[in-house]
Amino acid sequence: MDTIVAISTSPGIGGIGIIRMSGEKCFEILKKIFEPKNKESNIKGYTIKYGNIIDKEKKEIIDEVLVSYFKAPKSYTTEDMCEINSHGGTIIMKQILELCVKNGAKMAEAGEFTKRAFLNGRIDLSQAEAVIDIINAKTEKEKRALINQLEGFLSREINVIKKEILSIMVDIEVNIDYPEYETVEVTNKNIINILQDSKNKLNKLKESFDDGKILRDGIKTAIIGKPNVGKSSLLNVILKEERAIVTEFEGTTRDTIEEYITIQGVPFRIIDTAGIRVAENEVEKIGIKKSMELAKEADLVIAIFDGSKKLDEQDYEILNMISGKTSIIVLNKVDLQDGGQEQEARKQILEVEGRGENIEGQRKIVELSALKKIGIEELYEAIKELYDVDKISVEGENIVTNVRHQGLIQEAINNINKAIEDIKNNITIDIIAIYIKNILDSLSKITGENISEDIINEIFSKFCLGK
What we know:
alpha/beta; six-stranded mixed beta sheet; 46% helix; 18% strand
């Protein structure tokens, strides 16, 4: 393999920049550009040397650096590897990178260092995928779940299930080759028991994906309501910045505004939408249509109403639109209410479609003032009641966060179901063997033992350079 090199730290100015190099000629190339202060020639792994990067053609010192040495096979890639710790800055790191390439290194592709760690057998594919997911993690819980995956928790569980399924193949082969040693009934009973046990384990992993999806992607949340009820004001309060334009004029928001934020430990993908009303022009009509579509697709809807006024026909249409959705009904502008009067808007909402008291079991009702920042904590508490991330345990647990893994687990479960059904219908054992092979194929793709080069390349193309 070529010796590869890349900048591993984020682009821009910083205190330290790291250039990573890996491959058979790593130390040979390094020797051409690095002059350590300590002239000792013996290279030891897990050591750091201080010195200068020098352009010998120009007889010019590029930078004063520290170089970390990692000798094969005890390195990230299992190859000889070094990391040049230079001063941060685009010019310095670019010059060092160019010197490495000029002296025989090749520019690394996205994720190529981790890809080599996988191809050289140091980690499996699920662990490799955990690397990029850890980099992109949005919450502490997601990071901890992915650390478990990086440590091999998921791989070990999958391998246990594969071992059980492989034992079925042994039973099938014995039954085919030596039918006199065991009855078909006994073999089938053993196979069903093992398949059912494996299915239970896979179902547990599949069900964990609901929690994993929350940790990974956040809860897709649409803020909807009529124009000028305070949608954009609420978004700004939640984000603690003036992200959306707020004016006294109706219909200011024509398109969606999307941001990620963590509330009470729960990641949210919050989308502010155009006000829902009878559109006055084509642009607004498109925005309103998008608002309605997002309300249907969202995991959570925050529907805002003007709590200082009675509900009108458009408010009722919005309530009907979110019927059956997990939602929080926000009565905004409580600062404009007359404290001595019964709140008519709340009373109307509780009476919608005769639901009465039951509505608060299905939805949460929160009164607040986005302008005065009153009641925001009550909104956060309502969110926490609906999505209590504290209930998601990541300590020693396998939580599936990867869509690819979830799809392959479902494939394995489908083939288990077909195998059990055919066994009960007395289908010949060699047909059952096809399903068993499919199960093993699906599980092997999770860890990367049986996967095409195209899929491997696609997975690693999502990585950043230098990782």
